[in-house]
Amino acid sequence: MIKIWKNGNKYAKNGDTKYMMTLAGYYMMKGPNKYHHDAESWYKEAEKLGSHEAKLCLGYMHSIGKLSFDPKRAKDLFKNVINKLEYHKNDEEKELSRIAMRNMALIYHNSHLIRPLEVSNLTKLKKISDLKVNNLAKIKLKRAFKWYEKSFDLYDSQSAYNLGLLYESDDDGIEKDEKKAEYYFRKAIEYDENNIPAKKKLGNILFNKEDANEKDEGLRLLTEAARIE
Fold first, then answer.
1. What are phi and psi of 102, to 5 degrees?
2. Does residue 22 fall inside a structural domain?
3. Quick one: which of 160, 184, 188, 203 is 20 to 30 A from 102 by CA?
4. Chain-centroid distance, C-alpha 69
5. Shortest CA distance to 51 belongs to which of 116, 127, 59, 87?
């Protein structure tokens, strides 16, 4: 780790974004806030040189309040990545784009779950009644759903899983639909065979069905999930 830090510091100062990201990651792992400021500094340097990954990392820090909670700034960074990579040229750009979309969804989803009265990061509220708690919840969830779908369209396993959870839960404004929940859990596994939560969810759904073949598939998925853990 010391060797990585020394080499990263040398190359980062020469403008190599790869090593800037390595250094930032090193400081993020060290924690606490003192080192997170160093991480942020290197992410910003890499961002100035055009690193989309650095923008994602800065957005993530703002979205969870690593140094300061600023969902609006986080959304701006994520949207910048999404817009820049609208016509992604390779798998790496496609992955960064879908992560940015998923992170957009998580900002709204987490606000819905954890900060139900938060309105500062919401735009385009059309009428006063939108400020009611129940209406806010529906607006946030609707926007989260939209971004999960966009990320899902780029084959994001975690977004597929979260869509499955939404259809399973019968939450604000999203009607419970067990078939759709099953579909998205299955897609989550298709996109990432190591998605353990999705295997557990789909495994339980299938194991509780009457069809013997589906029961067998459910048992297989539950067994696989247990082995991976």
1. -65, -40
2. no
3. 203
4. 17
5. 59
Is 99 within 8 Å of 159 (Cβ atoms)? no
Looking at residue 189, its amino acid is: I
Structural domain including 202 reads: 155-228
Quote the CA–CA distance of 55 and 58 in Å, as a whole number.
5
Region of poorest pLDDT, from 39-53, 102-116, 187-201: 102-116
User: Distance between CA 141 and CA 37 in Å, rounded?
Assistant: 32
In Å, what is the CA distance from 146 to each residue of 105, 106, 150, 163, 174? 7, 11, 6, 10, 12
Q: What is the largest CA-CA distance in the chain?
A: 64
Output the domain CATH number for residue 169: 1.25.40
Give, in degrees to the nearest 5, the angle at Cα 26 between 157 and 100.
Answer: 30
184 and 164 in contact (C-beta within 8 Å)?
yes
Over residues 185-211, the pLDDT tens digits come to 999 999 999 999 999 999 999 999 999
Specify the number of domains making up the chain: 1
